[in-house]
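From the pipeline queue, job 12 of 40. The input is one protein chain; the requested action is below.

Action: predict structure.
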Amino acid sequence: MLFNFICRATLPPARPYITCCHALLSSSYQSSLFTTKTSRSSNQNSFTVTYLINSCGVSPESANLTSRRLDLSKSPNTADSVLALFNKQGFTKSQLSKAVSKHPRILLSDPEKTLLPNFKILKSLGLSNAELVRILTLIPKSFASSKFQDTALHSVEYLRNVLGTDDKVVSAIKRFPLVLTYNLQVYATENIQLLLEVGVPELTVKAMLAQQPRTFFTTADRFRKVVRDVQEMGFEPSKLRFLLAVHAVRAMSKTTWDTKVEVYKKWGWSKDEILMAFEKYPGCMIASTDKITRILDFLVNTMGWERSFIVQWPIVFCFSLEKRVIPRCLVYQYLEEKGLIEEEEDFCFTKWLMYSETKFLKWVVKRYEEEAHEILKLYRRHLNEANGSTTSILRNRDVI
């Protein structure tokens, strides 16, 4: 008996052996299946990556990322049809690349049932192909939605009723294309009514809706708080600046506002000076913290402007530093160093920075007729250098 027990204890059991073999076979099968799936997935990814790069102009990095959540191998004909429609509408390769990069799944949209009707809605307003392309490039995800047709039609109808003309409707859409995706009856009506109740003229409200429609698109509670804050700052509702201030405050969170206030303070501005500048031109608080810093750096350290002068002209923060402020101010500095600016003549902000490009160049040529050729040459050089440099570089080099 003991012998039989020892034999049974030492002999390997038959069942586990079979189970082990089964496990090995199963593991081998699963490995083969995984390899097949991986290979198929790799082929799908490869097709999508190649299509996005070659047909849509998407960068390799973006194409690789997109291929993880988009498979074009199952519907290449749909993607081809979408691209054909885009090309017919006048898309350039770069515009197409931008739209697809933002929302790759637009390539799976139905050209006839979804995209073409959406194009027709916008064309009915008189928008040009170039304007249509720009709008789609900005909101490709919304444009590719089947719900866009209903939302856009309701938005257009609402804007027509409030603004009165298609020209103003188009202006609002061009300024803020996402207006086509909002239920304006919900987002705009109550906020507009609040403005009228506090004393904002109806014409001013309509003008703001056409020029800055985004101002109105927030919850009624949030909008009511913004209006109250602007009133407490001392803005008069009957003046245009009241709505400009509402737009500025509405555009950012309190944290962002406080951060910008701290940026101005680091340059020596008091709370009163910041508020004074904001009252003169509310847009000075819309500029990014980086832009505020770079403009102050240039005006203070390169141009030597006093803080009090900048406070008087806060609109400077809304100008392009590279395309307007730097090149024009450096030309002024050059003329001053050459003794071509009369001693009693202060920097005329209106002429040097407020004039449009065309008007500015005509004024310079007329004002400095003998030196005009050299001045224009210098201006173009500063313009080119500023667009590829930083204020710190400009500050450390010769002006001429």
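Job complete. Residues 319-400 form one domain.
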